[in-house]
Amino acid sequence: MSDAGAGVVIVGAGHAGGSAAAMLRQAGYDGPLTILGDEPILPYQRPPLSKAWLKGEADAESLALRPDSFYTENHIKVRLGERVQSISRSAQLVTLASGETVPYDALIIATGARARLLTIPGSDLDGVQPLRSAADAEQLKKALGPGKRLAVVGGGYIGLEAAASARALGAEAVVIEAQPRILGRSSHESLALFYTDYHRGKGVEIILDASIEAFEGKDGHVTGVRLSDGIVVPCDHVVVGVGVIPNDDLARDAGLETANGVVVDLDARTADPAIYAIGDVSHRPLPGYGRMFRLESVANALEQARQAAYHIVGKPAPAPEVTWNWSDQYDLKYQLAGMPFDVDRVLVRGDPASGKFAVFHLNGDRIQAVESVNAPAEFMGGKLLIGSRKPVDLAKLADTTVSMKEVAAS
Amino acid sequence: MAKITYVEHNGKEHVLDVKTGLSVMEGAVKNNIPGIDADCGGACACATCHVYVDEAWLDKTGDKSAMEESMLDFAENVEPNSRLSCQIKVTDALDGLRVTMPESQH
């Protein structure tokens, strides 16, 4: 690739896009580098938006992925508030909403995902919002405080974090979940039970098996959530946390293969040798699991940013990483390593009642994934064993008197 | 404000004035110092902000929490003076602190 040409263009200024730019410079890429982002602010971290930032424990400055000076010092041109309308692969250029075209030698699609919205009556009332962007979080923070009541639609990690943060800010919170249990998409049942009890103990109301019919409002602002059994759950504000949709339309319209995300290889490259896709928007191979999947995590964004950067500068591919994620609620640290695919048994290490335990998802005597609560050794040891694919002595794994260090070494 | 010296694994030194209240990790990341990844942004969830604290400063940087201890236990090339830099809050008492980065955080 010529350094003097159009250079690398990154579409999307999120965690993935911002990191890709930084990693390209770190890897020695010295050609032109442009980030096109549709949000009005420089790349920032999303995870704190439902956690530390929402609770007021982190300021705006601490959200920034890099300080402003980073981009000027590293000759990274960041164009904010710019939405890319289309990609012309034959001409190797993207067209902005304004009609302006931006040429590329290599294109990195890092457009992320958008919150899934509900279309039931009242969804457009003031006070009904997703929680995805800094602007969303600002809006939510203003609505929380003593005397306020937050309704969370969807018992996933984002929603539960919002509920926990609402409690920390003195607001009441109610979580409304359509399934018979929370965390159905992401976690083992023992974790769902544990978190349900813990939230209830903190004064959060959790309503399961609930089908939502409408949001009710007064003077244009939400006042309650009406369930199909006729019950109206009163509230001052609503966070809808029912998953995300990858922003892969741009790629699909350009004729690139998509399958719940843009299909890429282990260099984060699409079938077009000049186009990469990274982060939440990509559908990627998962080494060790023999399948393709779309991950939603910082760890994935960083890993693929590195893959794309290395490939663009011609460095050998980085070693595959074990995917991981985390969630902070109250004084509980949840950590996940690996993915619970092809699991034939589950082993719980430690007693959930103690507030410190881990759930190991196994295939035979190999660990596929571990979910830990306030058990970092189980997370770290499990992650190591998932990466090495080493068989594990299950009797030792189940025995908390045997340290994770010893389990990992045996 | 505290003057902190960050030493890359290759020996390159960066001397910075870091605002009190920030973590030692944030001091590095905000000033574009390579060698501290901090993938989780300071949540003590990933162990990619590992540093070695100069022996003379071990007392002043305080004790490791059980959480930090367990995370470090599984990081690479851990030494008795290893810390997760996101867990060291910068105070005036840390003026002059010196930390060294490991070869890799991954």
Summarize the structure.
The complex is a heterodimer of chains A (410) and B (106). Chain A is of the alpha/beta class and 410 residues long.
Which blocks of ≥5 consecutive residues of chain B have pLDDT under 50? none
Q: Roughly what is the average pLDDT of chain A, rounded to an integer?
A: 95
Structural Rg of chain B: 12 Å
> Order of SSEs of chain B, N→C?
EEHEHEE
Strand numbers in spatial order across the main sheet of chain B: 2-1-5-3-4
Q: How much helical structure, as a percent, in the residues of chain B?
A: 10-25%
- Counting DSSP H or I runs of 4 or more residues, the number of helices of chain B is 2
* Separation, N- and C-terminal Cα atoms of chain B: 30 Å
Largest sheet entry of chain A: 5 strands, parallel
Beta fraction of chain A: 25-35%
Question: What level of helicity do the residues of chain A show?
Answer: 10-25%
Structural category of chain A: alpha/beta
Report the principal-axis shape of chain A.
globular
What does this protein structure show overall?
The complex is a heterodimer of chains A (410) and B (106). Chain A is α/β, with parallel strands linked by helices. Helices cover 25% and strands 28% of the residues of chain A. Chain A contains eleven helices and 26 strands. In chain A, strand 11, helix 6 (189-201) and strand 12 form a beta-alpha-beta unit. In chain A, helix 1 (15-26) packs parallel to helix 8 (298-313). The radius of gyration of chain A is 22 Å and the shape is globular. Helix content of chain B is 14%, strand content 21%. Chain B has helices spanning 24-30, 66-73; strands at residues 2-7, 13-18, 50-53, 82-84, 98-100. Chain B has a five-stranded mixed β-sheet. The mean pLDDT of chain B is 92. Chains A and B meet through helix 3, helix 8, strand 22, helix 9 and helix 11 of A and helix 1 and helix 2 of B.
Question: Secondary-structure blueprint of this entry?
Answer:
The complex is a heterodimer of chains A (410) and B (106).
Chain A: E1 8-11, H1 15-26, E2 33-36, H2 60-63, H3 68-73, E3 77-79, E4 84-88, E5 93-96, E6 101-103, E7 106-109, E8 113-115, E9 128-129, H4 134-143, E10 149-153, H5 157-168, E11 172-176, H6 189-201, E12 205-207, E13 212-218, E14 221-227, E15 232-234, E16 237-240, E17 244-246, H7 249-253, E18 262-263, E19 275-277, E20 282-286, E21 291-293, H8 298-313, E22 324-329, E23 332-338, E24 345-349, E25 357-363, E26 366-373, H9 376-388, H10 394-398, H11 404-409
Parallel strand pairs in A: 1-2, 1-7, 2-3, 7-19, 9-16, 10-11, 10-16, 11-12, 18-20
Antiparallel strand pairs in A: 4-5, 5-6, 8-17, 13-14, 14-15, 20-21, 22-23, 23-26, 24-25, 25-26
Helix pairs in contact in A: 1-8
Chain B: E1 2-7, E2 13-18, H1 24-30, E3 50-53, H2 66-73, E4 82-84, E5 98-100
Parallel strand pairs in B: 1-5
Antiparallel strand pairs in B: 1-2, 3-4, 3-5
